[in-house]
Amino acid sequence: MSGKFIQLTQLATFLANLKSWVGDLFLAKADAAAVATSGAASDVSVADSSNVFTGANVEAVLKELYDSHVADDVTFEKLVTPTTGKLASYKFTKGTGAGATEMVIDIEKDLMNDTLELVTITESGGKYYDGETEVTAADGVTSAGVYMKYNTAPHGDTPVYKYANMAGVIEYITVPQDQSTAMVVLTLDANHVLSAAIRDGSIPKAKLDQAVQNVLDAAPQKLNVPNIQSLTAAQCDALKVGDTVTLTSSNDVKDYIVTFKNETTGNLTLTYHDHESVIDVKYDKSSNNTWGHKVTQTTDIGTALHEADLIIATDEDIEALFEESGS
């Protein structure tokens, strides 16, 4: 029912009350006795075949009420600016000047505005309930769910409630029950607030901004392997100069640095060194263009000194040195 409509039965009650109010008001004037004893609401005839009155109809009825009492020094007007929050306002005035008495009649924008309520209808044993009150199809309820509950007799002493199914205008939001593999975990709290959190370690590099990927690609990577001579082709492809490959077999932990890689010739060298030796593990690509271990070379730092670069002194050389020094 539109907020600009008044049911006929409500209007009859309204007019009866209006006559009573106007009559009571005008009793304050000695010459207003005729208004106080005016007829019942049925004395005011309204030609309308429908069962509702629009705002325009209400104005016509009020004007008819005025016309029936125009001889009683009553004036009537529709206010240019209605009372704040009202659809329209009409003013009845008895008398003139300082002794005039006024009454303003306000028409509500929505007669049901204060009766609207969202309720959840539940089902039990094939019947539907609003709380503990059973409701049926005659009330507008044909299934469980969220309904708009409204009073079709907002100005009556006894409310008459109807229900409008909100299934078509309410969007339900739920979150997955199992989010164990999700990168972003969603949460919907009791206040219907939706939030999201990133699961630690769940975002792959491919999902990151390209600029971030570029930084990661340029940074040295670290790879742990149980055997330095058994790198897979995929591991060799991913390695670049400066990356670290850590041998973690048993208690022998060694950090090998990628010291050389040439994709064109298919050569890759990983180097480890300490105070005793230098170890070069070399890979190359075979005829089927697949990386494979080629050779491991170990060079002891002590034997790496070239003996040819040492001067071996004879007894004669030593005596000659003493003679030159004057000893």
Mind explaining what this structure looks like?
The chain contains 6 helices and 18 strands. The protein has about 325 residues and is of the alpha+beta class. It has 4 domains: about 100 residues, no CATH class; about 55 residues; about 40 residues, no CATH class; about 80 residues, no CATH class. Strands 13-14-15-16-17-18 form a 6-stranded mixed beta sheet. It has a 5-stranded antiparallel beta sheet with strand order 8-7-6-9-10, with no helix packed on it. A hairpin with a 5-residue loop joins strand 11 and strand 12. The longest helix is centred in the N-terminal third of the chain and has 19 residues.
Question: What key attributes describe this structure?
Answer:
disordered N terminus; alpha+beta; 6 helices; 327 residues; five-stranded antiparallel beta sheet; 4 domains; six-stranded mixed beta sheet
Helicity range of the residues? 10-25%
Structural class: alpha+beta
Outline the low-pLDDT stretches: 1-12, 21-56
Written as H for each helix and E for each strand, in order along the chain, the element string is EHHEHEEEEEEEEEEHEHEEEEEH
Mean pLDDT: 75
List the helices and strands and how they pair.
Blueprint: E1 6-7, H1 8-26, H2 33-36, E2 52-53, H3 55-68, E3 74-78, E4 86-94, E5 101-108, E6 117-124, E7 127-130, E8 133-135, E9 145-151, E10 161-165, E11 184-188, E12 194-198, H4 210-218, E13 222-225, H5 233-238, E14 244-247, E15 254-262, E16 267-273, E17 277-285, E18 291-300, H6 315-325
Parallel strand pairs: 13-14
Antiparallel strand pairs: 1-2, 3-4, 4-5, 6-7, 6-9, 7-8, 9-10, 11-12, 14-15, 15-16, 16-17, 17-18
